[in-house]
Write a structure and sequence with these properties.
There is one protein chain. The chain is built from two helices and two strands. Strand 1 and strand 2 form a beta hairpin. Helix content is 72%, strand content 5%. With 80 residues, it is mainly alpha-helical. Helix 1 packs antiparallel against helix 2. The protein has one domain. Strands 1-2 form a two-stranded antiparallel sheet.
Length: 80
C-alpha cells in the first residue's frame, strides 16, 4: 500500500506523529501538565489548538509543496 511513497511523505508523517507522541508522553508523565497556565489559558489550548492544528500542518504542507515543485523541475530537466 505504501510502496513507492516519496520520502517527504514519511518525513511529514514523522513530524505529525512525533508531535502527537511527544505531547502524549508529556501529558502522561507530568502531573497536571495539560492544565498548567500559559499566557492565562491552559497550556493544552496553546500547543494543541495553535501549533498542532495550524502551525505544524502549515509547515508540512509547505514542505510537501516545495518538494513537489522540485520534483517537477527535475523531471522537466530530464532527470529521474
Amino acid at each position: 500500500m505504501f510502496k513507492g511513497m516519496p520520502k517527504i511523505f514519511w518525513i511529514g508523517m514523522a513530524i505529525m506523529y512525533g508531535w502527537c507522541f511527544l505531547f502524549m508522553g508529556l501529558e502522561m508523565t507530568i502531573p497536571g501538565f495539560p492544565l498548567k497556565k500559559f499566557l492565562g489559558v491552559p497550556a493544552c489550548y496553546i500547543y494543541n489548538m495553535i501549533f498542532a492544528l495550524w502551525i505544524v500542518p502549515t509547515i508540512i504542507s509547505y514542505i510537501f509543496f516545495k518538494s513537489e515543485e522540485n520534483r517537477e523541475a527535475l523531471l522537466e530537466k530530464g532527470g529521474n
